[in-house]
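Running log. JK asked me to keep both predictions on one page so they can be read side by side. First protein, sequence followed by its tokens:
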Amino acid sequence: MTVEHRLALIASPTPQAQEAATQLRDRYEWVPIEQATMAVALGGDGFLLQTLHGMLERRRILPVFGMNLGTVGFLMNEWSADLLENRIGRAKTFSVTPLRMDAVTVDGERISYPAINEISLLRETRQTAKLEVIVNERVVIPELVCDGVLASTPAGSTAYNLSAQGPILPLDSALIALTPISPFRPRRWRGAILPERTRIAFRVLDPIKRPVSAVADQAEVRDVSTVSVAIDRSSTLTLLFDPEHALDDRITMEQFAT
């Protein structure tokens, strides 16, 4: 290709994405992901998250230019097989810093996962969860009675966080949204906006009678007793966007959606 990057093509297994991948393979040159300096991903937001998590697991992170062939495609560019070199050359870069979830189960197992969108604690049964909320080693809510609670990055603030009535965060805000899910007590608490350097922890107050699972994007840990959340600066990701469809503009305009 005329651009200086070695591009790898990654496509969702859906028929639409596979058909689009065939078009691109016929028109451009590609290299295996192991040899690439940049990736083009075809699919929806879920597939893009899957792709980024794969890079985190392999500890080889590449800039990603995504094209939407899914349902929502909030994190993706519009699909087109034309002028791909020019689009990538003009693309605007955005850095996304994931969260790190460190969970301890009731059996004492310790499990860590990254989260690009959010980390959620969710009740496992019909009974509400009872959680102690700790911020920077200080107990701020001794007992939160709720269906759950989540900590969201700016990139994920328009996803599950927004559905739970959480705030939309500008991409460059360096903030974390802490949002309760169907809170019962305290009745008037609707969440908090915290600096991204904040250390957040949750303790399940009755993990046997009221079991709770912790979910980092798509990875779930069941029957947790404690969960710690902090920003992970060692794993910064880079997304590429057409200038007219930049992610920060999309997030801003979501605040005016009706």
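And the second, directly underneath as requested:
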Amino acid sequence: MIEQFWFILLGFAAGVLGSMIGLGGGIVVVPVLTFLGFPPTAAASNSLFAALSNAVASTISYSKQKRIEISLGLKLGLLSIPGTVLGAVISTDVAPEIFKILFGFVLIASASYIFLRKKIESKEKTLSKQIMIFAIGASFFAGIISAFFGIGGGIIFVPLMVVGMGMAMKRAAPTSQLILLFSSLSGVIVHTLLGHPDFTQAGFLAIGSFVGGLVGARLSIDIKERYLQIIVSVVILIAAGKLFLDSATGNSGFFGF
């Protein structure tokens, strides 16, 4: 058990980043576990425990800062639940090579969002019926992404709220954490029923991610984001490239081991 304490550090790093950008810590945890040779279902299910813990800590902190749109967060969170059930189920039989390719594209989308997030903020919009219908479909899809990849679904929810609904980024990222609380909890339950997670590893990830979520929510108040955006985007793109390379060469772990 002692040799698995590094999962706490991984969860902490993922929690800080996930809380600050609103995407959930899985965007860090899943690539690391995949590079180390974890099967897709183990990487995704373990990561969701970290995403859940991170969402709880972030939601507590952001609610105290009064930066969460509670009503919208509850609605989108509940709408994501059916998708998480489907995502967890279909992840059971996915081949590692396919998982790496698909997750590589998710990482590219995430890096693009992180790098461009300041440019996609828009003026407040009136929520039309068309936007709400789109939000329902997007929430279902985000639920699938959340449980299938173990990342929480923030990559869908934050742009949806900012671009589609005209919400300011400083409220969209915190609201995303409330939504991720629902999507990650339902994903954790389904993955657990399917027997996917390693509870020791998942528990350590959750511990680190909870503390990281508290720290990240505090840092988000006054940190200068630009350099962080560039560094994180570059690292994520490198990870995506490694995933594509591994899928092409058949490597199952970091540096092929």
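Observation for JK regarding the second prediction: DSSP finds ten helices and no strands in the chain.
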